[in-house]
Amino acid sequence: MTEQARTALKQLQHLDNQIADAEEKVTGFDPQFAEVEEPALVLESEVETTRKRLQEMKVEERRLEVSVDEKRTRLKRLEERMGSVRNLREEAAVTAENDMVKRALQNDEQEAFTLIDQMRKIEDRLKELTEALAEAEALVEPRRQELLADREAAKADLERLRAEREAFATDLDPRELRLYDGIRAGGRRRAVAELTADGACGNCFGMVPLQLQNEIRHGTSLIRCEACGVILAAPNPEESTGGEAAAQG
Ligand SMILES: [Zn+2]
């Protein structure tokens, strides 16, 4: 096999395309996870919101309790004062204050009553949601575990390929490797392509000038396609299909 078959570069390209496919496979799991986990996530967020609301109501309940206690204490003191009033004017003042505090106390109590009623409903709702969440999680867990295992396997494949690529690349001519990497840097899958039988670039199918064709077939220097920039390799007669370079899109 001649140097011009660019066998090593083509092998590298084959590896890199396998790596690109493996990367795509790994990221392809993301939407699958999202789909599987979505119903539980929706419930989880509802549970969270409901729990927060209940927490806020408890704070409000506590505030009302303090307010009720305060007013009861005030009423007690007013009762004591009522026993020691010295004239009608003082009695009228104490009575007026007593009425006012009593009304405020009734308001607080009514508010607390309504609040406790609402809290009971929210607690029921929270219980329902928590149960539904547990159910949803139990339901998707096997599928999630399956996806996790598949993704781990895909990641392991990817790591193996990357290690293989790294080892392989150390044996290549650094200049060629740099050029190859540069061509692929923009995300192109093909950096090296074989000449077709009729002397065209195997990537863009632009005709390659005769003199360059000869250089590619018999020379040693590295030639790139003037139209698309790929490194051109001599066709490998042993590979009937033209190999990886022609098979990859
Ligand atoms: Zn080309």
Verbal overview:
The chain has 249 residues and is an all-alpha fold. The protein folds into two domains: 147 residues, Helix Hairpins; 75 residues, no CATH class. Helix content is 73%, strand content 2%. It has a two-stranded parallel sheet with strand order 1-2. Strand 1, helix 5 and strand 2 form a beta-alpha-beta unit. Helix 1 runs antiparallel to helix 3. The longest helix is centred in the middle third of the chain and has 82 residues. The relative contact order is 0.15. The C terminus is likely disordered. Zinc ion binds next to loops.
Short descriptors:
single chain, 249 residues, mainly alpha, Helix Hairpins, 2 domains, two-stranded parallel ribbon, 6 helices, rod-shaped, disordered C terminus, binds zinc ion
Kindly provide the radius of gyration, computed on alpha-carbon positions and rounded to a whole number of angstroms: 40 Å
Structural shape: rod-shaped
Tell how many strands the DSSP assignment holds: 2
Give the ligands present: zinc ion
Ranges where pLDDT stays below 50 over 5 or more residues in a row are 240-249
CATH class of the largest domain: Mainly Alpha
